[in-house]
Amino acid sequence: MLDAHGSWIKRLLLNEGNQPGACGAGTAQERSRSPRDEANIADFWSSPKDLQSWQDEVTKHRINFQAQLVLPNGQRSPGDAPLAVAFYFSGLGHEARDILKMDWGSFASCPFILIVPQRPSGRWWFIDDDAAWGWVEGEFCQELVEAFAAWMNMMIDHPRVDKRRLGLFGFSAGAYAVLEMFASGLVPISRLAVGGLHGHGQPNVKHIPQKRSAGVVEKFEKFLQRVEGHAGAEHIEVVHGKTDKQCPWLDAKKIVDALTKKQLQLGCPKVKLRLLDAHEQDTFSKRNKTHHDYMKAAFMRKEFFKGFFADKVPHGEANMASPKRPLPSASMPSASTLEVAKFTVSTSMDGWEEQGFQIFRKSGFVIIEDVLDHVQCSEVLEDCRQMAKEIVAPQGAGNRGKGRYSFGVASSTGSILHREAIAKHLLNEGGRLLQPLLSQIFFDESDRLSSFSCYSGGGDFVLPGVEEYQHLHADMQVKKDLDKQMPPPFLAINFVVQDLTELNGPMRIVPGKRERDWRNQKKEPDRWRCSRLCPVPAGSALVRDVRILHGGTPNLSEETRFLPSVEYVSAWFRATHRPDMFPPRRCIPQDVFVTLHSDVQQICEELVAEPGDDTEDMSPDDDWHSKVWRGVTFWCT
After folding, report:
1. Sign of CA dihedral 236, 241, 246, 249
2. What phi-psi label fits residue 137: left (phi over 0), alpha (psi between -120 and 50 degrees) or beta?
3. If DSSP states are collapsed to H, E and C, what string results for 378-421?
4. How far does CA 320 lie from the centroid of its chain?
5. Do 454 and 427 form a contact (C-beta atoms < 8 A)?
6. Cα angle vertex 177, ends 225, 84, to 5°?
């Protein structure tokens, strides 16, 4: 065995004292010492209680670790097949021996080698400070990343290791270490999982003492740049606590977004995200003050290992082995003619309300970013998917054209505000955040007041594989004597709960153009047809005057695209008592209404359902209707 694998064996050294060496310590004599039992060391996992040590010949950094073979409960031998490998990087509160004592066999889906490195002394893994504020005050150590990469590559060079199933996972500070190793691109990792993640630095200086705040944001930005440079993986899973106070989700989301962005650019699978409620953590008591105790909930699950070690197509071979459905050339979209950035502001910007209002007044719509967070988007998206199951009939005919559906016209109340996630995240939280902008939009110069109310909730979705464009249209028209520019009679806020791309059927919209500008056109101009709202990130809101021309585009992706909405009406238009619209349908159940903020309740009073009212039914796609007024269709979308 020494003859066949001698070069591998000579690079693995035992630390005779079974104690971790200081980072960067070690003499030439120690580095050249040969193992006393070469046959045992060849299978480095055969002595799980031993703390083993290896020293990088280039950087001189010493890496201490423990390793063991994990067998699924009931399996006595790993057999002769190559073995999967999982490197686990622990949080600050665990040693390698603590991790190996855990009952991994109860959850393993296959035999695998678990390798647990010891955190270098005095380091926050790859940050040169392990004090309480080390993750923001310390400096990044690229050299240490390179040393760990050399060690990992040596370990996976073992002849029993399955090179197709190399995993890397970690929790808290260990999750940070995992991300740095993955981002380095120095180790051929194909599976990745992190829980309770944080980065180097922080995206803001919130809760950071002033004396420690210098460079915090800059360090985080550089960390994100490293993460965005990753080379892709066949499986990435992120587990995070919704109520985590130690590593807040809003900070972690920025890291998840960076991972996802590059995955999609590379054509790799999306990041799998699992968000935990407080009661799902390992400890659900007053002892868990920071809500950061969920390492076991994250990884000690059969479902986790089934996904982590599932047979995957090696990265780079995916297109050859499993080609995606080819895009029809006739439907391939041209580049969008709409410069989305010119119509976009973020709630993180100072004076965003005024900037958004100026864009809206000129174009009839505005995109507001950072309205919803990832948790809100995920819960609303799940609600949309559930509603779609109730609406779509087997033939998928659509109620707004083939494969296109309006939520509103498929509901018995013409609304979706009875849905818990819709009411909570869109109407109550998203709508309230946008109220300063709505107040400016609905400000009436004639009486110097801003007055509006909520009318309904709807939106649309388009199934994957839809190749047709929807006709250009306005959602409503009003009599000429009532058709004033500002304030608009009716407003829709479409909430973006998935990233809008060129391929997944984004709305096309023509800035400032209305039905009268389209009426005498024989053919839709090419620049209008290509005026698509993309890219727009999830969490954004499209605030639009429903009289502005818009239409659907082909969804050439492999997923349904959802765009739910909440609708508002100006006080002056409500006073017209238009018979096909008013009074609005009572669509908010009493038990939902009482959960709304008082500000939101005030604008929804006319929508509260009476006892016994039906606010639940969704109708199949062949049972749809529209409301017609003087030959013009008003869609409840």
Report:
1. positive
2. alpha
3. HHHHHHHHHHHHHHCCCCCCCCCCCCEEECHHHECCCCCCCCHH
4. 28
5. yes
6. 115
Confidence of residue 410 (pLDDT cuts 50, 70, 90): low
291 close to 248: Cβ distance less than 8 angstroms: no
Residues in the chain: 637
Which residue, chain included where needed, has tokens 């649309």?
Answer: 460
Q: Which residue has the higher pLDDT, 476 or 531?
A: 531
Spatial CB neighbours of 347, under 8 Å, sequence gap ≥ 6: 368, 369, 370, 371, 433
Contact 432, 423 (CB under 8 A): no
Least trusted range by pLDDT, from 128-132, 312-316, 485-489, 601-605: 312-316
What's the mean per-residue pLDDT of the chain? 83
Model confidence pLDDT, tens digit, residues 360-392? 999 999 999 999 988 899 899 999 999 998 888
Closest CA to 528 of 518, 537, 519, 520: 518
Q: Evaluate if residue 411 carries a pLDDT over 80.
A: no
Q: Assess contact for 154 and 12: CB atoms under 8 A.
A: yes
> Which of 155, 202, 179 shows the shortest CA–CA distance to 53?
155
DSSP 473-525: B-S----GGG--SSS-SEEEEEE--S-B-SSB-PPEEEEEEEHHHHTT-SS--
Give dist(CA 565, CA 497) in Å, integer. 11
pLDDT of 516 reads 82
Place of tokens 């005030």: 602
- Measured in whole angstroms, the distance separating CA 454 from the mean position of its chain's CA atoms is 29
Identify the three-state secondary structure at position 190: coil
pLDDT confidence of residue 614: 58
Under 8 Å CB-to-CB from 326, ≥6 apart: which residues? none
Cα separation, 184 vs 118, in Å, equals: 19
3-state secondary structure of 261: helix
- Residue 397: the pLDDT is 66
Contacts of 513 (CB under 8 A, 6+ apart): 364, 528, 548, 549
The dihedrals phi and psi of 41, each to the nearest 5 degrees, come to -65, -25
| Residue ranges with strand state E in 56-203 | 62-70, 83-89, 112-117, 161-171, 191-195
Which amino acid is it at 607?
A: L
pLDDT tens by residue, 432-474: 999 999 999 999 888 888 899 999 999 999 999 898 999 899 9
Contact yes or no for 181/148 (Cβ under 8 A): yes
- Tell me the per-residue pLDDT of 3-50, one tens digit each, with 9 for 90 and over: 333 334 334 433 333 333 333 333 323 333 333 333 334 588 988 999
For 82, 341, 400, 450, 543, the CA distances from 408, given in Å and listed in that order, are: 55, 30, 11, 27, 18
Q: CA 336 to CA 350: how far, in whole Å?
A: 29
Supply the pTM of this predicted model.
Answer: 0.54
Which H or E run includes 374? helix 374-391
CB within 8 Å of 551: residues ≥ 6 apart: 469, 470, 471, 472, 473, 507, 508
